[in-house]
Amino acid sequence: MAFLKFNKAELVNLSYSLKREIISANKTGAYCNTSIVTCNTRRYHGLLAVPVDNFGSDMYMLLSSLDETIYIDQKQFNLGIHCYDTIYEPRGHKYIVDFKADPVPEITYKVGGVVIRKTILLVPDKDQVMIKLHLVEAPSKLVLHLKPYLAYRSVNSLTHKNGEANTDYREIRNGVSFNMYQGFPDLNLQLNTSAASFVSDPQWYEGITYSDELRRGFDCKEDLFVPGHFSVEMKPGDSVIFSASVNEVAPGGMKRSFDNSIEKAGIIEDYHDQLVHCADIFKRDRHGKKQITAGFSWLYTGLLRETMYALPGLTLYADGNMQEFEEILDNLIADNEERFYRRTTQVEAPLRLADILQKYIEFGADAAKVWRKYGKLVKDVIESYGPSVRKEVSLQPNGLLWAQMDGVALSWMNAYVNGNPVTERAGYQVETNALWYNMLCFAIEMESKYGSPRGEFVRKWAPVRDLCLENFQPTFWCPEKNCLADYVGVNGQNKDVRPSQLFAAWVPYRAIDDDVLAAMMSTIHHELLTSRGVRSLSPRNPLYKGVYEGSQTERDLAYHNGCARPYFLYLYIDIRFRMKGSAALNRAEWLVEGFYDDLNKHGVGAFSEVYDGDPPHEPHGAISSAVSVAGLLGIGYEMEKYWEV
Description:
Elements: E1 4-7, H1 8-12, H2 14-17, E2 20-25, E3 31-35, E4 46-52, E5 58-72, E6 75-78, E7 81-84, E8 87-91, E9 96-101, E10 105-111, E11 114-122, E12 128-137, E13 142-154, E14 170-172, E15 175-178, E16 187-191, E17 197-209, H3 211-215, E18 221-234, E19 239-245, H4 254-265, H5 271-282, E20 283-286, E21 289-292, E22 295-296, H6 304-319, H7 322-335, H8 337-341, H9 352-363, H10 367-384, E23 393-395, E24 401-403, E25 416-417, E26 420-421, E27 428-429, H11 430-450, H12 456-476, E28 477-478, E29 483-484, E30 487-489, E31 492-494, H13 502-506, H14 514-527, E32 529-530, E33 533-535, H15 552-559, E34 564-565, H16 566-580, H17 585-597, E35 602-603, E36 610-611, E37 619-620, E38 624-625, H18 626-643
Helix pairs in contact: 5-6, 5-18, 6-7, 6-9, 6-18, 9-11, 10-11, 11-12, 16-18, 17-18
């Protein structure tokens, strides 16, 4: 039995099925993303999007969709579905009787006595998608037409009929090859059988509408080029494999490649398997360079903050791969020298270097080796936060870091509306200073053990560490709110109850005492905690927005003012385990169960970026988030410690 399934009643109901999305991604960075009825509803949707090296490895959609049409007894049945304005034509979804994914999507169509099963496979290590059509049942032979829709545009934009497009093709083995614009890769369309023929009938299909973009008020219509169709005769039991790839493939090896990839994909048997599968698709290995993609379909690869947040979860806690942890970290460091040493709008992100190395050592890495390899970087990062080095953040005489650039969001709360940050947070940010204190303590301890205990670094920074400890709690503690101030600016404490304070309790070296810890955790429990993560703002705050819907402005206002985030649930549960031990296990299990209830929503089998702060906590944002998956893997890792007791 498939782990994830939908029945006919759900599939034919477009108000239901169009909100459920297939997402597949592979090591090359390619992805396939569409709705479970294969009707594209976003500009990011399509069957094959790939990084294009000529354009800085940005993502480009090559193949938007593939329509299947069957001809039997002189009757035509189109299994495709597209939206034009508000009209769906054709309406092939009405023939769908079954959908399952474990993890490869498989869709079954039934037209009278004809049953066709379609399997959509993104090849794990190539810029290639393969679609297998298996004729399960039929009263007689039939003819299958496959009609590709070509986009050749950035996933962030739309395309339109134009005279610059090169619509010519060249014949290749069992197919044809296109390259519509200079600098793009070829798109090779092939079938595994020489019995198929390509019928040229070039035309633009104009006004295809993406309903999600329409609903949000964005540009939502585009024109796609359809060069013609493939035609092949089939009898019951036959299978045909269609391939779209940036490289020409050997048709004779397509079936073997397809079957091997299906076998390697395995079967999803439980929720942990699903998490590990999701973790794997975020780890890109293009041209031998390993990086983390922040999320699908529109988040980028190699981002500093998101990689720092996600790295331990996607490597150590997913499959224990310590070598991969270091490879990804090393690439991140090499790509972000400017941010680590000189300037960044992500002021807390470089400071997370300490806590991910602490997690690495806790997982089993040799502390002395870790310090020999990364110690200089840690010390140099600390030096860069000293006075007059960075313009965006600097050390103050009280040992704390003050972050400020007018009109710029310098923290993880980085949404903008009309060019202005929703939450600027100029001043002493609570998470930045909690991470700062932890990094100072970690560096001084490691340098004392494995470096020069009486050297200049320890002599210079030990007094700063002590000042930071002395001033942290008096600066941030709000006794009337029983929480830590979110930040302290020129007007004093900002007393919004937010999850940033969790870092102050979560880091190995904390600058708050036990009474403050207990009080702030109680406040977070009562005001921020939900069954889909920790809210970004308390509902008692007049700025709170509990539902992430509406226009871009409305959603940006809710993004950090109410949306619940799974990653902060990881911090919360980890702290509870430290406070209560195994007594926290039942509560932790209950808190993560809800995420698995939502696996048939938004992204099928995926864990979303954000969830509504209000019940029933619907999923939103990127349909598959590296940070969310990493947080849930972190929770699982912590729970396992107490299951074994």
